[in-house]
Write a structure and sequence with these properties.
The protein has 250 residues and is of the alpha+beta class. It has nine helices and ten strands. It folds into two domains: 6-142, Jelly Rolls (Sandwich); 152-239, Orthogonal Bundle (Arc Repressor Mutant, subunit A), CATH 1.10.10. Helices cover 42% and strands 20% of the residues.
């Protein structure tokens, strides 16, 4: 049975408010949602392809990936989710999951019953609009990933991925200047960028050699933000972020 912990819902509410106008009444309605907090170790499947679920999954802390597996066993990472992201809101309408959701790091997850989320959206059109906009931005990010995979070089793909994660972590309040947590292995980067581990290794070595980035202890430091954007053919418009990052002067 779901319990109530309004503090667990703050990351979601903050994210929705950054993108859509929500008044005090709507915020309180979201704060009153029933929810349950759970903690998962790296590698845990939060949702498996083919599963049905009675709750939305909100990421409260940690990194989570969405992925699909081919018949031959090859994995494609389709998305990376951070604090504040709702990762399976649509499963209530589609019935079963068409991809898997897996913890990349130690992850804190908040489960919100689909029925409760649907009821609050029906009662408050502004909340329904905010959730719809959030889902549309997820779609925009997916389209950019398709372009990245289909038409950019290996070097561009990895630079682009780094640019995106920099801005998304900054927007979620997780950034520290131009140094960020980057807990992906080279194999996982390859699964996200459609590259082999060897290709990823060579590309990262080149990026370090020309001074774009430094990597250490599952973190990355960007040495030249403007050059990284140029190298990745990166335009932040698809993220539809409403606020401007002060630390990056954008």
């Amino acid at each position: 049975m779901a319990t109530h912990d309004m503090h667990a819902l703050v990351p979601m509410i903050d994210k929705l408010r950054r993108r859509s106008p929500l008044g005090a009444i709507e915020v309180q309605a979201l704060m009153d949602l029933p929810c349950k907090l759970s903690i998962h170790s790296p590698g845990t499947y939060l949702v498996r392809e083919g599963d049905t679920s009675d709750s939305c999954v909100l990421i409260r802390a940690g990194f989570v990936i969405g992925s699909k597996i081919t018949g031959a066993g090859a994995r494609q990472i389709l998305s990376i989710h951070l604090c504040g992201d709702l990762v399976n809101l649509h499963h209530d309408l589609l019935g079963e999951a068409d991809y898997s959701i897996q913890a990349l790091t130690r992850t804190e997850v908040v489960h919100i019953p689909h029925k409760a989320m649907g009821d609050v959206a029906k009662a408050h059109p502004a909340i329904a609009r905010a959730l719809y906009r959030d889902a549309l931005v997820d779609g925009a990010i997916l389209r950019e990933w398709l372009l990245n995979m289909g038409r950019r070089t290996a070097h561009q793909r990895i630079c682009h991925l780094l640019c995106e994660l920099t801005l998304r972590q900054e927007d979620a309040g997780l950034g520290k200047g131009l140094s960020y947590e980057w807990p992906m292995t080279q194999e996982q980067i390859g699964d996200a960028a459609g590259l082999t581990g060897v290709h990823v290794n060579r590309t990262l070595q080149y990026m370090r050699k020309i001074g774009l980035i430094d990597t250490r202890n599952r973190s990355v430091r960007i040495n030249d933000w403007a050059a990284l954007q140029r190298a990745g053919d990166f335009n932040r418009a698809y993220l539809h972020q409403s606020r401007i990052s002060t630390s990056l002067n954008l």
